[in-house]
């Protein structure tokens, strides 16, 4: 146990910020990342995520407290050695025009070869292997500036992989990506953390994705103590509510998703079951109806395996039968406007 602990990246009463004269951004942070652990740092804009990441990487000095890599304080580790312990992928778009994927990824070997160092057969093998690992086989000679944001991000992850560090830290690696690419990057990073036993820490705004993939979550918000825990504990003990709820937005502890408060103007009975019923309920909530079992003059009924599966009744009299939720919602709004 003691032996393993030596490999942790951890902080000890870490206080971060920029201006010694001003208030710190966060005080007394005590967190750790283990090899093989996939950790997501979450927090609203301006919470201090990038500042923490830069402090953990040794780019910004702590205001007080320490960052430890194993038994060594990060500031005591010479830069060349540091590059063998932590690889960093920051948000800034890289100015890497005219570099091929191979050349970019090969830069990750710099700590071992020197900037102008010659790649040995093992280095070349590692570069090809990492490119394949991130799913860019066949792109080796493609110019980085002709790649999509998602592909470029994968190349950056491959570069971090060939650096062969026990820890990889990424600042918003999925920031510019569409949803499928985000999911792909998160799954890739999670898989690499397990298969390669790397401790991976990344910051993200994607709370729902972090809930689904992270082993550990760090929650950060201005003026609040940083919370660390596994996703499910943080949800159950209301930390997510506490950190992210704003006026008009509510965190649903059951589904782990955010909901917008809507002005509820009417009640409507909803009868039926299954997925169609679920989506009709969502459409009704969106337009300001609370769904109930009984008590309203209006009833929406969902039928199954019939051509017109949606029906609207007013005091048991059929008002409308239709095929789509769009028609149903229009019918509900029309009917309620005519006879509230
Ligand atoms: N170089 C700097 N000097 C002084 N203050 C800074 C500097 N960089 C950032 N800040 C301030 O520190 C605070 C935290 O910024 P930081 O970029 O760490 O937040 P963040 O959580 O990463 O935000 P976002 O999610 O918007 O990227 C902000 O108020 C910001 O203005």
Properties at a glance:
18 strands; Rossmann fold; binds adenosine-5'-triphosphate; 34% helix; five-stranded antiparallel sheet; single chain; 340 residues; alpha/beta; six-stranded mixed sheet
Whole-number count of domains: 2
Strand adjacency order, main sheet: 7-8-9-4-10-11
> Cα distance, first to last residue?
68 Å
Q: What is the CATH homology-level superfamily of the largest domain?
A: P-loop containing nucleotide triphosphate hydrolases
Bound molecules: adenosine-5'-triphosphate
Which CATH-level-2 architecture of the largest domain? 3-Layer(aba) Sandwich
3D shape:
elongated
Overall mean pLDDT: 90
CATH topology of the largest domain: Rossmann fold
Number of E-state strands: 18
- Uncertain parts: none
Using the coordinates above, name the CATH class of the largest domain: Alpha Beta
- Label the structural class: alpha/beta
Estimated helix fraction: 25-40%
Number of helices, counting only DSSP H or I runs of 4 residues or more: 13
Estimate what percentage of residues fall within beta strands. 15-25%
* C-alpha-based Rg, rounded: 26 Å
Any overview of this molecule?
This protein has about 350 residues and is of the alpha/beta class. The chain folds into 2 domains: about 1-245, Rossmann fold, CATH 3.40.50.300; about 265-340, Anticodon-binding domain (Rossmann fold, 3-Layer(aba) Sandwich). The protein is about 35% helix and about 25% strand. It has helices spanning about 1-5, 50-55, 80, 100-105, 110-115, 120-135, 150-160, 180-195, 205-215, 230-235, 240-245, 275-285, 325-340, and strands at about 10-15, 25-30, 30-35, 40, 65-70, 70-75, 85-90, 165-170, 200-205, 215-220, 225-230, 250, 255-260, 265-270, 290, 300, 310-315, 315-320. The strands form 4 sheets. It has a 6-stranded mixed β-sheet with strand order 7-8-9-4-10-11, sandwiched between helices. Strands 1, 2, 3, 5 and 6 form a 5-stranded antiparallel β-sheet that branches. Strands 15-14-16-17-18 form a 5-stranded mixed β-sheet, covered by helices on one side. A hairpin with a 2-residue loop joins strand 17 and strand 18. Helix 6 (about 120-135) crosses helix 7 (about 150-160) and helix 7 (about 150-160) runs parallel beside helix 8. The longest helix is centred in the middle third of the chain and has 17 residues, at about 180-195. The mean pLDDT is about 90. The structure holds adenosine-5'-triphosphate. Adenosine-5'-triphosphate binds next to helix 2. Keywords: ATP-binding, Cell membrane, Ion transport, Iron, Iron transport, Membrane, Nucleotide-binding, Transport. It is found in: Cell membrane. One of its GO terms (cellular component) is plasma membrane.
């Amino acid at each position: 146990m003691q032996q393993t602990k030596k490999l942790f990246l951890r902080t000890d009463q870490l206080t971060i910020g920029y201006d010694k004269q001003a208030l710190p951004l966060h005080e007394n942070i005590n967190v750790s990342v283990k090899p093989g652990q996939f950790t997501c740092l979450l927090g609203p804009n301006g919470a201090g995520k990038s500042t923490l990441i830069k402090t953990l990487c040794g780019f910004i000095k702590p205001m007080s407290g320490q960052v430890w890599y194993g038994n060594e304080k990060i500031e005591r580790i010479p830069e060349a050695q540091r590059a063998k312990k932590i690889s960093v992928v920051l948000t800034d778009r890289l100015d890497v025009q005219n570099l091929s994927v191979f050349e970019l990824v090969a830069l990750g070997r710099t700590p071992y070869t020197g900037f102008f160092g010659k790649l040995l057969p093992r280095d070349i093998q590692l570069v090809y292997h990492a490119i394949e690992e991130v799913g860019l086989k066949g792109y080796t000679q493609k110019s980085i500036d002709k790649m999509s944001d998602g592909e470029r991000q994968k190349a950056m992850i491959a570069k971090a992989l060939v650096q062969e560090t026990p820890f990889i830290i990424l600042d918003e690696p999925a920031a510019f990506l569409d949803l499928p690419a985000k999911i792909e990057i998160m799954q890739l990073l999670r898989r690499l953390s397990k298969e390669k036993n790397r401790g991976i820490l990344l910051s993200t705004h994607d709370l729902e994705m972090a809930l689904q993939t992270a082993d550990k979550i760090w929650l950060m918000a201005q003026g609040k103590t940083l919370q660390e825990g596994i996703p499910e504990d943080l949800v159950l003990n209301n930390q997510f509510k506490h950190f992210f709820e704003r006026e008009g937005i509510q965190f649903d502890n059951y589904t782990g998703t955010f909901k917008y408060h809507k002005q509820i103007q009417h009640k409507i009975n909803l009868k039926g079951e299954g997925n169609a019923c679920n989506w009709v309920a969502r459409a009704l909530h969106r337009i300001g109806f609370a769904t109930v079992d009984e008590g309203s003059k209006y009833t929406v009924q969902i039928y199954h395996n019939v051509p017109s599966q949606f029906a609207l009744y007013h005091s048991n009299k059929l008002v409308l039968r239709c095929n789509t939720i769009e028609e149903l919602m229009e019918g509900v709004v029309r009917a309620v406007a005519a006879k509230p």
